[in-house]
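Same chain as my last thread, 140 residues:
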Amino acid sequence: MSAVAEKPVDREGLPVTCTNLDALPVYNEMLLVNMAVRESALSQVQSVLELDQGFILAHCILGCMWLSELIPATDPKEPADCSTFPPVSGHVKMAKTALEGGTLTEREERHVQALLAYAEGQLPTSIDHWAAILVNYPRD
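reply #2:
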């Protein structure tokens, strides 16, 4: 894991990787809305990415939102690799690039790993990553 230097923090006080601080309050609001109304959250997470294309947690959330629509239609005995599906592929690519860049926090790295596993049809691995995240970040 790389050192985290002077990163902005989200509503929980946790460091995040974003370059446009105007995106952070929109992201924080999106997290609250996501729990209440999914359609509004979709619009808000898209707004976050319009403000900051490099906001990796927003990519993880939007990628997982798309995957949640795709995965139930696949055969659980033969998991499908959805990483190249157009609504998902851009988020997967951004996640991989961010992971390779070495600037993410441990929390962000875990969310990226969960997204990548989910996109490859490895739901149990994704669940393991999300479970590990919740140990240290129970509000995620």
